[in-house]
């Protein structure tokens, strides 16, 4: 199958709809699509309630988008433990409303649904491929597995062009402190701005290993994914990085001394020791591969926090 051009132009007059455009990955995706010349509609939460099926249908009918990128979700694993009903109900209902609106009002549109590597849970083999069984270990992961299955059902039952992108850990500038790179870079930025000679990071399990990809690489995959055949595709680096190695790399990037202390409150139940995915399927179809080194991801995330905290 021919490789999809990495910067395929968007036909003149065609509109793209991005849900969750104000979120971490969403902001980067909207910026990238704009750079590529697309007409992007990314309504803010206060302008579109994705839990209102009629409102979603009206918007899709009005826009008649050629492509829909569905990124909106309650994406915090930690918060999903605290409020599992919200994560399960809202993530699935938002996805259903988007898919149903496209089916009824813009059935020719390609739909890219952002899923998660969390759906796989503890891997039986590494790297994890798209053929691995679902074994979600937290409410957020269960909700994304349900959305993943719903997307496939709409492709099968209604013939929609639905592509599911299962992204593993992504990080970069603008990430919330609820995520490991976001909290580490914020803690370092705060300490540097306060003039502290020694920086002590509060961490969870530093022996666990995760597959980190820069968010700007991830959204390139999302943008190119609209041209793929329906199905699921992993978006990941293929490399597992221990959290302690991440801290060491951050110390090099920031040029500071860093030590860590394990915070019991940051330890997760049912945490998986190592996660590492395979993006071979996506690479074979599009030529996509991560381009931004992890050191640059950390440096840019740290710079973003310094700028934000210095205001």
- Order of strands across the widest beta sheet? 2-1-3-4-5-10
Oligomer: single chain
Sketch the major β-sheet.
6 strands, parallel
CATH class category label of the domain at 15-173 and 212-238 and 276-291: Alpha Beta
Q: Structural class given helices, strands, pairing?
A: alpha/beta
CATH architecture of the domain at 15-173 and 212-238 and 276-291: 3-Layer(aba) Sandwich
Q: Which residue ranges are poorly predicted, with pLDDT under 50 across at least 5 consecutive positions?
A: 1-13
Q: How many DSSP helices?
A: 10
Order of helices and strands: EHEHEHHEHEEHEEEHEEHEHH
Rough outline: globular
Distance, first to last CA: 50 Å
Give me some keywords for this one.
311 residues; Rossmann fold; six-stranded parallel sheet; two-stranded parallel ribbon; 16% strand
How would you sum up this structure, described in words?
This protein has 311 residues and is α/β, with parallel strands linked by helices. The protein has helices at residues 24-35, 53-63, 77-82, 84-105, 139-158, 180-193, 215-225, 243-254, 280-286, 294-309, and strands spanning 15-19, 39-41, 67-70, 110-116, 161-167, 169-171, 199-203, 209-210, 212-214, 231-235, 241-242, 258-262. The protein has a domain at 15-173 and 212-238 and 276-291: NAD(P)-binding Rossmann-like Domain (Rossmann fold). The longest helix is centred in the first third of the chain and has 22 residues, at 84-105. The radius of gyration is 19 Å and the shape is globular.
